[in-house]
Amino acid sequence: MARSVWKGPFVDGYLLNKADASRASGRNEVIRIWSRRSTILPHFVGLTFGVYNGHKFLPVQVTENMVGHKFGEFSPTRTFTGHSSDKKARRG
Amino acid sequence: MARIAGVNIPTNKRVVIGLTYIFGIGSAKAEQICQQLSIPAERRVNELSDDDVLKIRELIDREFRVEGDLRRELAMNIKRLMDLGCYRGLRHRRGLPVRGQRTHTNARTRKGKAVAIAGKKKVTR
């Protein structure tokens, strides 16, 4: 079920502070965040976030299209590269 | 023979049924259309007057997105996800289920027909 509208989008509050701080500093640095559950707000467009995937901080450049998605959607947590083909089959 | 919304030519079925042959119009919308134009449920497509056909065509043009437009919209939505690089887009690219279903077994609709693993030994007894 979708989230109620009256609650507004879910965002961890400290992200707003971090974003503002980064804006104020003027340098376009990667903002490291762990909060994959937070919604991307229009406020964040243009900033670069390093979204933690349990291993690394993957840089995510926020564009207008991303608004409304969650940060976690842009930082995959699993690496599956496919099954290696069977050794015997390759030899034969 | 009636052409409504492009290429669709529903036959001598009831109007409510015939309209569902249009991509983007199911039974709910078909019923809604018939009610709005007060077409009786028993009326067949080949019994419709030209005037009624015109009215149906106009109503669909005005209110609903059907056929090519709808297909394009769907494709655009998927393309947006794929270009965005989000998880759902990745799943679309890979041709795997998008909404968190299991892939250990099943998921054949998305994955296509099962492919035999080369060189796997058959169990013999």
Written description of the protein model:
The complex is a heterodimer of chains A (92) and B (125). Chain A is α+β, with helices and mostly antiparallel strands and 92 residues long. Chain A has helices spanning 13-25, 87-91; strands spanning 30-33, 48-52, 57-61. Chain A is 20% helix and 15% strand. A three-stranded mixed sheet of chain A has the order 1-2-3, covered by helices on one side. Chain A is globular. Chain A starts with 12 loop residues before the first helix and ends with a helix. The mean pLDDT of chain A is 86. Chain B folds into two domains: 2-63, Orthogonal Bundle (Helicase, Ruva Protein, domain 3); 68-111, Ribosomal protein S13/S18, C-terminal domain (30s ribosomal protein s13, domain 2). In chain B, α4 (67-84) crosses α5. At the A-B interface, α2 of A face α4 and α5 of B. Chain B: This is Small ribosomal subunit protein uS13.
Largest sheet geometry of chain B: none
H-E order of chain A: HEEEH
| H/I helix tally of chain B | 6
Q: DSSP strand (E) fraction of chain A?
A: 15-25%
CATH fold description of the largest domain in chain B: Helicase, Ruva Protein, domain 3
Straight-line N-to-C gap of chain B = 63 Å
Termini separation of chain A comes to 52 Å
Overall geometry of chain A comes to globular
User: Which structural class do the helices and strands of chain A define?
Assistant: alpha+beta
Quaternary state reads heterodimer
Going by CATH, the architecture of the largest domain in chain B would be Orthogonal Bundle
CATH class of the largest domain in chain B: Mainly Alpha
Pfam family, one (chain A): Ribosomal_S19
Organism (chain A): Rhizosaccharibacter radicis
Family (chain A): Belongs to the universal ribosomal protein uS19 family.
InterPro entries (chain A): Ribosomal_uS19 (IPR002222), Ribosomal_uS19_bac-type (IPR005732), Ribosomal_uS19_CS (IPR020934), Ribosomal_uS19_SF (IPR023575)
